[in-house]
Write a structure and sequence with these properties.
Blueprint lengths: L1 H9 L6 E6 L11 H4 L2 E6 L5 H10 L4 H5 L3 H13 L4 E5 L4 H9 L1 H7 L4 E6 L3 H12 L6 H24 L2 E4 L2 H10 L5 E3 L23 E5 L5 H21 L4 E5 L16 E3 L7 H6 L2 E4 L9 H8 L4 E3 L16 E2 L3 H12 L2 H17 L2 H16 L1
Parallel strand pairs: 1-2, 3-4, 4-5, 5-6, 7-8, 7-10, 8-9, 10-11, 11-12
């Protein structure tokens, strides 16, 4: 979503070429809004890395898993060709999975400059990834059954510290999505020049009522996200196992709806429960958010800022979130949402809102104002100021 809306809003005043990773050669032949937004688009398939290879790389490779995930000599060669042929002002890598290409090309910057004006290399760090893995390690370490995950996160945390620092030093400019992430990156690379360009939302697309659908229940508690992403999996399990039973002691009819593609096998333990629904992939999350009596953000690990907060806010939903879930947003507990971190606090906050429709409405109005402040129209100028500053 961040990548798309950056392109969509920058394309009005800039010419954009998009080099991207695709699952298959047919992917870019499908109809997509990107074809009207970009001057040029090409996709490169990346070889799949199986679990045995990933395990070996975790033990033996100096690169973190995220530095290997989308690495392809074919992609690197294509990028090199584009840079040799084009006269780019900016080369921008979206996310750490593509940052290794910036590291390589920034190292070749002098060679490219012999033939043409030198481009700015911008690294857009969607999450402060070393911090994310550190938090995953600290969370998983509490439970013996998740010590394997903790071991993986510990190894990635240590590798990502070095990798993320090297990317930040190689790039001409670094973007972070929150002040907290910017500070964490500056701890890695003191004196690093970081600009905060937060995640935003197209508020207008959430203004009209979403299409209705069967099965609507006003008492639902809704959580959305990609459900093979470890922080989302942990959030859904923690809420369903630790918080929901406490809520249902007072509100026995409440149901927890988990909306998102690719539910991880760890979530199979929730299947068959009459108080939990896993939707899998859906065409549109807005109808599910619209049905929520309370939107919940029970995240215990993660970094950056969460689109889910902005989506629920844009739809004027009352929210209960952990402190980590709303990190990076200018929110006040009890004004735009309610913050709760323990199972009992979270359950009590949800139950209090279920019993108080007027308070839910007030929170929703304030949340909507928050979303408007994060409309992409207000965020894109920050990105453009980075380009102007470094072109001067």
């Amino acid at each position: 979503m961040r990548n798309y809306y950056l392109i969509a809003n920058l394309a009005a005043r800039h010419e954009i070429d998009l080099l991207t990773v695709v699952e298959s050669e047919d992917e870019l032949r499908c109809s997509t809004p990107l074809t009207t937004l970009c001057h040029r688009i090409e996709g490169v398939t990346v070889p799949k890395r199986g679990l045995p290879r990933r395990a070996a790389d975790t033990l033996l490779s100096p690169w973190p898993d995220m530095g290997l995930r989308l690495w392809s000599p074919a992609f690197a060669a294509k990028l090199n060709t584009w840079l040799a042929e084009g006269d780019y002002d900016v080369v921008q890598a979206e996310g750490i999975e593509l940052a290794r290409y910036v590291l390589q090309e920034a190292g070749n910057k002098k060679r490219h400059a012999i033939r043409r004006r030198s481009a700015q290399y911008v690294f857009d760090d969607h999450n402060c990834e070393y911090l994310l893995q550190q938090r995953m390690f600290e969370t998983d370490l509490r439970l013996p059954r998740r010590w394997m995950g903790a071991a993986y996160s510990f190894a990635q945390w240590r590798k990502l510290r070095a990798f993320e620092a090297s990317i930040c030093r190689a790039a001409d400019h670094v973007l972070a999505v929150s002040d907290a992430d910017a500070a964490a990156l500056q701890r890695l690379a003191p004196k690093l020049d970081v600009t905060v360009v937060p995640n935003g939302i197209d508020v207008e697309s959430y203004a009209a009522p979403p299409p209705s659908f069967h099965g609507r229940r006003e008492a639902d508690l809704v959580f959305t996200g990609t459900m093979d992403f470890r922080p989302n999996v942990d959030a859904a399990l923690w809420f369903a196992q630790e918080v929901l039973p406490l809520i249902r002691q007072e509100e026995p009819g409440v149901r927890f709806v988990v909306v998102g593609q690719k539910p991880h096998r760890r979530l199979d333990t929730l299947r068959g429960r009459d108080d939990v629904t896993l939707t899998g992939a859906v065409a549109d999350t807005r109808p599910y958010i619209a049905q929520a009596a309370v939107y919940v953000v029970p995240l215990r690990m993660g970094g950056g800022t969460r689109f889910k907060i902005l989506e629920a806010a844009a739809m004027s939903k009352a929210m209960v979130s952990t402190s980590l879930g709303c990190e990076g947003f200018a929110v006040e507990n009890g004004r735009q949402l309610v913050i709760a971190d323990s199972p009992r606090e979270f359950a009590d906050a949800v139950n209090a809102l279920l019993r108080d429709p007027a308070r839910r409405e007030r929170l929703g109005v304030n949340a909507r104002a928050l979303a408007i402040a994060y409309d992409w129209k207000n965020i894109i100028p920050r990105m453009e100021r980075v380009y102007v500053k470094h072109a001067a």
